[in-house]
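Schema walk-through. Below, the input block comes first and the output block second. Nothing else is stored per chain. Lengths vary across the set, and this one has 105 residues.
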Amino acid sequence: MIEGISIHHILTVTTIMFFIGAYGFLTRKNLITMLMSIELVLNAVNINFVAFNKYLYPENMQGHFFSMFIIGIAAAEAAVAIAIIINIYRNIHSIDVEDIEQMKY
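--- output ---
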């Protein structure tokens, strides 16, 4: 499936994904959308690992192993972040970043 796609097309898509995620993280005020932006950045990195592995070292599987490791870390990060967001919502009744004054100090 990936044989017909050049590395330039994959890098273009992952660059766009990365910058959309970075832009979303820096500009959004909602904690859920910030979490989704972080996940978008991590998925762009995963695609880069697999693509570089396929084009540079097709006989090895290091890119796939790094991607699986990042997916595991992202799942744990998402679970912890959602638990923190739920706890914040229970205490403050808002998940906007600007409304969270208690966590500053």
